Each structure stands twice: as structure tokens, then as C-alpha cells.
Amino acid sequence: MRSYASLPLIMMVISIIVFFIQPVTNGASRYFEHRADKYGIEMTEGNADAAKVAFEKLSAYNLSDPNPGPLKEFWFYDHPALQKRIDFVEKYKRR
């Protein structure tokens, strides 16, 4: 006969492990998103204005915080903060 009494404990341990691994996976995702933004600007031949408008509209449509605190972004955001993305495309210069 199987006992499922330990299942809640196993699920709790897994949840705790995932909670502490989340910043690592989110950091990797933010890195790849930043690279994708750079690639997009290069493919549009430096048209940063289009990216800026897209990010501003995205921020308005999904009602996200465009400039969260550093800890909140580090732990919970899997994309760079929208204000950081906007600042990046404004400052990026194609070589």
C-alpha cells in the first residue's frame, strides 16, 4: 500500500527550492532578452525609435511598473524593466 502523507512536505521543499532558483533563471532570461533587443536594433539598422514606442505601448497596455526597484526586478522579473529597455535603445549606437 502506498502512502501519500509525505507529498505535502515534498511539494513544500520543491517550492522552496524553486523560489531560490528563480533569480538565477530570471537573470538568464533577462540577459537573453537584452541580447534580443540589441539584435532587433541591429536588424532594423538602428531604428531605436520604433523599439522605444513599442516598449512604451507595452508598458501602457499591460500596466506594468516600468521602473521597479532593483530587488523586485532581480527576484521576479524575467525581462528587463521597460525603462531600462527604453534607455538602452535610446543610447545604443550601431557600430
Explain what you see:
The protein is an all-alpha fold. It has one domain (22-91). The protein is 73% helix and 0% strand. It has 4 helices and no strands. The chain has helices at 7-43, 48-62, 70-76, 82-91. Helix 2 (48-62) packs antiparallel against helix 4. It is elongated and about 65 Å long. The model has no long low-confidence stretch (mean pLDDT 87).
- By DSSP (H or I, 4+ residues per run), the number of helices equals 4
What is the molecular shape?
elongated
Uncertain residue ranges? none
What's the pLDDT, averaged over the residues?
87
Q: How many beta-strand runs?
A: 0
Rg is 19 Å
Biggest pleated sheet: none
Q: H/E series, N to C? A: HHHH
Determine the fraction of residues in helical runs and give it as a percent range. over 70%
Number of domains: 1
How far is the N terminus from the C terminus?
68 Å
Please sum up the structure shown.
The chain contains four helices and no strands. The chain has 95 residues and is mainly alpha-helical.
Topology:
Blueprint: H1 7-43, H2 48-62, H3 70-76, H4 82-91
Which short descriptors sum up this protein?
95 residues, mainly alpha, 4 helices
